[in-house]
Design a protein that fits this description.
The protein is mainly beta and about 325 residues long. The chain has a single domain, classed as Beta-galactosidase, Chain A, domain 5 (Distorted Sandwich). Helix content is about 5%, strand content about 45%. It is built from three helices and 21 strands. Strands 7-8-9-10-21-17-16-13 form an eight-stranded antiparallel sheet, with no helix packed on it. The longest helix is centred in the last third of the chain and has 8 residues.
């Protein structure tokens, strides 16, 4: 601190309001941890993560939509892409009854938005928190308290979620953290790795390429998406980890979900030109939809006034 009059010279967390395009009026929060990691948080889109770079190199995939308010109330028409799109809280998968594709929480705006940059136990911590609602008259009443944290010297994004059922009836949680990685981390030189106990192809298109799940082909036209579910052996800290490594671009991402509540990781591969993306998605489901997840017993029950915690980490680095 002898060299500084303000820590913002090195690291900062900065709330902003967009003033252009379909995202005009939307709140975002810019985070720069001062040691190579920069990302933005979309406060009015479920507190998802949008841009993200490490040492000046992009790692996140962005959709053709760009920043957008939830004006169409449908996932694909409103989808901004980005490092992490929240899916749930009660549904993940195709549209079903009153649930749009991948649920409603990514269309929600945060209340009680709080940003902090402060020294804690010798570490400079940058943190953003907010409250999100998924509620319906004569229906569900869930509250999500989301806290997103990084530290100077630790190029990791920590996402800690606390879901509370404020309704009078038992409900079910179907959660998926749709982490989306793009060029230059993702190209035909990227390799996926994990401590897999089992790899499950979602459909016939994925099944016929099961032996190639760890790689990405070159961009092409008229090629189907592929999804694989990874049942991963947790590490000693009880996290299920998936790793994307690209030796050519010298980039690596480690995506981790706390195994207590997020025992699976879905891998989504889109090879089409202009839509070239690899999704790594810590989840408690297998994308069977709300009804299917409840019927199979995978959907996590949440009792009235019960609180359930979810934790996801995204660690980024450039390779030497």
């Amino acid at each position: 601190m002898q060299y500084l009059s303000d820590m913002d010279q090195l690291a900062y967390v900065r709330p902003l309001i967009l003033d252009d395009g379909d995202g005009k009026g939307c709140r975002i929060v810019e985070v720069n941890n001062g040691t190579g990691l920069r990302f933005t948080i979309a406060a009015d889109r479920g507190m998802g993560l949008c841009e993200c770079s490490i040492d000046g190199k992009n790692v996140a995939w962005r959709s053709p939509r760009g920043y957008s308010a939830a004006k169409f109330n449908t996932f694909l028409a409103d989808w901004q892409g980005g490092l992490m799109t929240p899916c749930g809280l009660r549904h993940a998968g195709g549209p079903e009854d009153d649930q749009p594709l991948h649920g409603k929480i990514n269309l929600s705006s945060a209340e009680q938005l709080c940003v902090k940059a402060e020294w804690i136990d010798g570490k400079y911590r940058l943190q953003v928190s907010g409250l999100l609602r998924e509620a319906f008259m004569f229906g569900e009443n869930l509250r999500l308290r989301r806290t997103i944290t990084t530290f100077m010297g630790d190029n990791t994004v920590y996402i800690d979620d606390e879901v509370k059922n404020l309704g009078s009836y038992e409900d079910h949680l179907v959660m998926l953290y749709h982490c989306n990685f793009g060029y230059p981390l993702v190209d035909e030189n990227m390799v996926f790795s994990a401590d897999d106990a089992e790899v499950i192809p979602r459909n016939d298109d994925a099944k016929k390429n099961l032996d190639k799940f760890a790689s990405m082909p070159a961009p092409a036209l008229n090629v189907p998406e592929e999804v694989f579910f990874h049942i991963i052996t947790p590490d000693t800290n009880n996290f299920c980890n998936a790793v994307l490594t690209n030796e050519k671009s010298k980039l690596q991402a480690v995506i981790s979900g706390k195994a207590d509540e997020l025992p699976n990781i879905a891998q989504w591969k889109s090879f089409e030109k202009g839509r070239y993306v690899c999704g790594i998605e810590p989840t408690n489901c297998l994308l069977a939809g709300r009804k299917g997840e409840i019927e199979t017993g995978r959907a996590r029950k949440i009792a009235p006034l019960e609180t359930v915690n979810f934790s996801v980490k995204i660690a980024l680095r450039t390779l030497e």
